[in-house]
Amino acid sequence: MSIGNIKPELLAPCGSMESLAAALKSGCDAVYIGGLNFSARQNAGNFSHEDILEAVGECHRRGVKIYQAINIAVFDSELESLAEEIKFACDAGIDGLIVQDRAVERIVRESCPDMPLHASTQMTLHFADGVLWANEHDYKRVVLSRELDRETIRKLSELGVETEIFVHGALCMSVSGQCYLSAMIGSRSANRGLCAGACRLPFSSTGKPRDKYALSLKDLTLIEDAEELQNIGVSSLKIEGRMKRPEYVSAATGEFRAALDGKEYDYELLRSAFSRSGFTDGYYSGKRDSTMFGARSYEDVTDMTASLTQIHEKYKSECPRFELSMRLTVKRGENATLTATDGVETTTFMGAIPQEAINRPLTTDAAVSQLGKLGGTLYRAGEITAEIDDGLMLPLSELNYLRRQAVEHFDKIRQDRLTVIKDFTPASYLPEAPEKPKKPASWWVSVEKLSQLEQIDCERVIIPLSLAKSYIESGRDPKNAIISPPRFTLHAEKVEANLREAKALGFDKAMATNSGYVYMLPRLGFETVGGFGLNITNSLSADEYALDGLSALTLSFELKAAQLSGIRAAVPKGAILYGRLPLMIMANCPIKAETGCHNCSHSLTDRTGTVFPVQCRMTGGEDYNELLNSKTLYLPDKLGYFDIDFGILMFTDESTEEIKAILEDYKTQTPRKSGKEWTNGLYFRGVL
Q1: Which end of the chain is more exposed for a tag (fewer CB within 10 A), N or C?
Q2: How many alpha carbons lie under 13 Å from residue 636 in its C-beta half-sphere?
Q3: Which backbone phi and psi does 331 adopt, to 5 degrees?
């Protein structure tokens, strides 16, 4: 947590060694990188193990921290390799890991507890209980969701956990960690680091997507809020862009460095380095409207091309970071000495014995001038003094040698001091497969309206929290129901109040649609079921949520059926097996931005003519819209491939008659003949 007048760190993105050099020479306080595996930017250049070792040295020599993003959803088949990658990060001296998957949390806790963990924005932590949940699980820092305003950020930064926010770069249309659009369209999962950027392609709410980019937001910049950002309580200001070129990294880092230091910055240079029709301040001001939308234009590209040389020149030279003070002593008949300090260490270096001067004796002014030539190093000259006996000569080359010794020494001791190797003790991580009798899966029905439940026979019903009161008033038994709070909310206090009311009405089970609810719901006395938004894709993650007290888990629909069936879970596990899968949570409505609410089409159309329904959720503490898949998941004849304890049939606009028929299809495993377009989802083709 940023305290008092301590400045938050400026955190720069690095997708390659050249970008690293650009960030370091432009004044960052920390960088984040990805390895060749397990990084949420798999299409960036990324860093080999040899590169990482070099990068750690270059960063620590400059007093800069280096974090590694190991922030994708991991499969069971990858857990051994994941542990090896974490061990390498420990051995290399990485300063912290940015994490999405709780398998990393388990491995770190059991094998290298000294490795700091940062909860990635992919974990969708955006209200107080999410931050407190992360703190309870020993995450040192929480990267907050991008959709928060300044006051929410301020309040979350007061909870005693370091917070990090994005201040510049691309804005996703979807809340991070909850986007499945790229995966569903082309099997390239955003949660696996291979997002294809489908949202940047033409979409429209009018059915005519040509030149309409309804899912494309402008890039974010908060550079004009630099002064306020230093007093809002956050610990780290993060620039997005590991897939961007070095010139972008340099421009964003350098201009933010200037702004944070109270110096003049070049907004136009920042814009020309990369933008999408200019910038937006995103959600920071609390304003959500059409001005946030924008796409990459021809002018944006030409402006960038014209500015590359100018930007490149700006990071040619080293950025001085430390002050070096020196005292030279030259005595007759004794070795010359240079005592130097960087403010942390003080060391004396020995040079040659001076000679009697024949023509020009060494003067104090000449010595001070020569020692102060620190260009190209990490140092600026501090106090430089010299004590020289009269009539002595010491070559300038000898002064250069002494100065070089000092610079190299302080570089090395700083690098050694900051490169902290963490002990890694290998362990057996995979939990034992629980023994349980084989029995048919039970059927849970999720609905949007109570009328959809008429004469429906199922083991469990899942209803929105907003329907809790009317559910009771209709005479139904709350013990059979699971209430589902909003998947995203900017009004957590209101949601909590509604949950307390539901508890008083007799509801005792609720769905944790994100990790914040994993903390909130048990606190309120609910039996908690894990929702698909937790992105559980492996047995370690499943075990971690079971240890949190969850009574059942909904596994990710990005798993293949075989992968899903192989998950070892200590509690019942299930999956969504019917419905229009949610592909995005959108905090800014694309339809409202394009046509206004009064002309709402309740759908978006892409460039191929495919129509994606949009479900409005802007009441009762809900602050988002959901983009749904164009096709309906339908698998009654594929159930033999799933070894699960329960299947969720998720209904949106289906009638009671349709629901009864579909439920019967699943119970009998008999598909009906219909002209409707169905999909198997990702259960048989999987994701990359």
Answers
A1: C
A2: 14
A3: -120, 145
Examine the pLDDT at 1 and tell me if it is beyond 50.
no
Residue 447, classified by CB atoms within 10 Å of its CB into exposed (0-12), middle (13-18) or buried (19+), is: buried
Residue keyed to tokens 């928060």: 148
Nearest to 202 by CA among 588, 558, 631, 594: 594
8 Å CB contact between 498 and 519: no
DSSP 45-59: --B-HHHHHHHHHHH
Q: What is the mean pLDDT of residues 120-139?
A: 97
Residue 76: which of 565, 515, 506 has the closest Cα?
Answer: 565
Cα–Cα dist 203/210, whole Å: 8
The reported pLDDT for the residue numbered 652 is 95
Q: Are 621 and 494 in contact (CB under 8 A)?
A: yes
Q: ∠ CA(490), CA(496), CA(142), 5° rounding?
A: 50
String of b and e for 153-181 (b: at least 16 CB within 10 Å)?
bbebbebebbbbbbbbbbbbbbbbbbbbb
Q: How far is the C-alpha of 424 from the C-alpha of 109, rounded, in Å?
A: 10
Please, which pLDDT band fits residue 6 given cuts at 50, 70 and 90?
confident
Q: Quickly tell me which residue has 């909850």 as its tokens.
A: 178
Identify whether the C-beta of residue 651 lies closer than 8 Å to the C-beta of residue 579: yes
Provide DSSP, 148-186. Answer: --HHHHHHHTTSSSEEEEEEEE---SBPTT---HHHHHH
Q: How far, in Å, CA of 135 to CA of 296, rounded?
A: 39
Task: Return the C-alpha torsion angle 73, 79, 85, 91, nearest 10.
Answer: 130
Give the mean model confidence (pLDDT) for residues 241-251: 93
Whole-angstrom distance, CA of residue 616 vs CA of residue 238: 31
Structure-block tokens of residue 169: 């770069």
Alpha carbon 563 to chain centroid distance? 25
Q: Please check whether residue 465 is in contact with residue 484, taking contact to mean a CB–CB distance below 8 angstroms.
A: yes
Helices then strands, counting H and E runs in the chain, come out as 20, 31
Total residue length of the chain: 688
- Residue type at 57? G
Q: In the predicted model, what is the mean pLDDT of the chain?
A: 93
In the chain, the percentage of residues whose pLDDT exceeds 90 is: 85
d(CA 181, CA 167) in angstroms, rounded, equals: 25
The band of 277, judged by pLDDT with boundaries at 50, 70 and 90, is confident
Q: Which amino acid does the sequence have at 681?
A: G
Q: Is the dihedral of CA 22, 25, 27, 28 positive or negative?
A: positive
CB 324 within 8 A of CB 380: yes
| Strand 646-650, strand 442-446: pairing | parallel
What does residue 120 show for φ and ψ, rounded to 5 degrees? Answer: -65, 155
Sign of CA dihedral 523, 529, 532, 535: positive
Angle (nearest 5°) at CA 595 between 592 and 599: 90
Q: Tell me the angle at which helices 539-547 and 102-111 cross, rounded to the nearest 10 degrees.
A: 80
> Residue 526 corresponds to which tokens in the numbers above?
């609910």
